Amino acid sequence: MKAATPPEAEALAARIDAMLPSVRITEVLHEVNRTTGFCTAFTNLRTGEPCDNENALLAAILADATNLGLTRMAAASPDFSYRVGFRASARRRMVRRLKRIAVVD
């Protein structure tokens, strides 16, 4: 079955899309962290210390969220290495913490 979208709706969607700023997902994640401080929920399992590299932590979260993985994220990003990402993410730590954080739609 073919979708039947009125031309007026298509035009409105195009106008709305043109009004929205083009923003990188990493910028959005930094903004959300500044507002909510959610990065503090990701702590080292042994020491309880928060991650000291916010960029690496957010890149690791993004890599995990998009199923890109740390290896491909490291290959795609000049400022991100697998080693730094592994230390920042420690998949076990992320999975445990994500289960504790309530996600609001």
Overview of the structural elements:
The two termini are 30 Å apart. With 105 residues, the chain is an all-alpha fold. It has helices spanning 7-19, 25-36, 54-65, 69-76, 82-89, 91-100. α3 packs across α5 (82-89). It is built from 6 helices and no strands. The mean pLDDT is 76. The longest helix is centred in the N-terminal third of the chain and has 13 residues, at 7-19. It has one domain (24-100).
Question: So what's the oligomer here?
Answer: single chain
> What is the count of DSSP helices, taking H or I runs of 4+ residues?
6
Task: Tell me the strand percentage band.
Answer: under 5%
Cα-to-Cα separation, first versus last residue: 30 Å
Radius of gyration: 18 Å
In short, what is this structure?
The chain is an all-alpha fold and 105 residues long. It has six helices and no strands. The two termini are 30 Å apart.
